[in-house]
Amino acid sequence: MTIEYEMAALKKVSFFKSLDEKKLKLLAYISECIELSKGETLCLQGDEGDCAFVILQGEIDVNVDDTRVITATTGDILGEIAILCEIPRTATLVAANEAKVLAISKDNFLKLLEEFPGVSFKIMREIAFRLEQTTRELAALKAETKV
Question: Are the C-beta atoms of residues 53 and 42 closer than 8 Å to each other?
Answer without folding.
Answer: yes
